Write the structure tokens for this entry.
Amino acid sequence: MLIVVVAVVLSASTALARHRSAPPVPSMEVEGLIKTISPTQIVVTVGGNRDVPVAITPDTIFRRGDMAIAPADLKVGDRVEVKAVMQDNVLTAALIKLENEENERPELREINGVIKSVTPTELVVTDAHNTDITVAITADTTIRKGGRTATIGDLAIGDRVEVKASVSAGVNTAVSIQAEGAEPERQEANVNGAITVVGSDSITVHGRNGDVVVKTDSNTRIRRAGRQLTLSDLHVGDRVEAQGTRIDDHTMLARSIEVLGPAGHH
């Protein structure tokens, strides 16, 4: 009888010991993006709008895939899956698994537009659809302006930029910024008068305020009575009317040149 009692007691003690030493079974899974993390707590944003605080203890396991990692390997914005248990009315992490793969590349996007505002840490670009896009600037962002290496201080409101940015948790972070200075506003110009010089890509017209060099390019239209002409069809003495944009006080780029007739005829 004594042997039986001892066996029962030992069996009960062993079962109790097993029960006490068995790890708790996770009762809840939390999946989302890390909002904050400290040595004692992680806050995970679930579904983009609900923050779930989970306690971290010395027993919490940290992994990426099947590999153990250190808590310091986690950072704000990382996607994690947390297996947690309720202990003393506190949700406590048993396992925190980093879902970002080691070789995962962030989504990249290209943003083109004009700088609306700029600070040492942030750029706001207005794109072709008149939409303002905010881009974070970091110490790793490479900046070039006018083909040369530049700094954030070289960027100015109105500059046209091409930004390549990584996207994580809805935040655009600039990888590179290519900038060009704002184009000066061009003024309309026109001149009416007789041609005094015909060059390879321009003519000189003697107008009311003196001679004006009228430059041409591939977009310049030259016509006489509705018929298309080329620059070589023009001659000294022809009376023309040129319209385009002003380059300086005595130079313009022609958008159109209309030949009105020889000098002296209207």
